[in-house]
Amino acid sequence: MIRVQTGSFDPGTEINTLHALSLDVGAVVSCVGYVRDSNVGREVAGLFLEHYPGMTEKVLGKIADEARQRWPLLGLVLIHRIGALQPGEPIVFVGICSSHRQAAFEACAFVMDYLKTRAPFWKKEQMAESSHWVEARNSDREAAQRWD
Question: Which of 50, 114, 115 is nearest to 82 (CA)?
Fold first, then answer.
């Protein structure tokens, strides 16, 4: 399941949904990303996310499909929020279930790494005195390279 949405989500509900998919679920691994209140030593007042409708969902679907091809997954949930967000709010949820924990851990890391480097989202950080578009980080690109 892939969702791009403005509204918040409940990580616990998403985890329970994954667990309920099958009695063969041996592990559910998830990652919830939150809006931080600071970045590189500067206070962040908010974050605004834009995306390219249609293209974004297609790219997220390809990432999910690749994860399913690499690991024996029983379920995958990927939620990414768009619009105006405040520090402390959840921005992204990736949940993976599998019969075994190692596949779930690896697939979750893979999806997060590819999401950060391949999905067409644009983030604008709002500071007290200004705003700017967030550039891609080398550390994110390096993390994603381990899966190539």
Answer: 50
Note the pLDDT tens digit of each residue in 51-78: 989 999 999 999 999 999 999 999 999 9
23-46: burial string, b at 16+ Cβ within 10 Å, e else? eebebbbbeeeebeeeeeeeebeb
Say which residues have a Cβ less than 8 Å from residue 87's Cβ, sequence separation at least 6: 35, 36, 37, 44, 45, 46, 47
Q: For residues 28 and 12, give the distance between their C-alpha atoms in angstroms, rounded to a whole number.
A: 11
pTM exceeds 0.85 for this model: yes
Amino acid at 103: A
Query: Furthest-apart CA pair in the chain: how many Å?
Result: 52
Per-residue pLDDT tens over the stretch 35-54:
988 777 778 889 999 998 99
Q: How far, rounded to the nearest angstrom, does the alpha carbon of residue 143 sit from its chain's CA centroid? A: 14
The span from the CA of 56 to the CA of 34, in Å, is 20
Identify the pLDDT of residue 84. Answer: 95
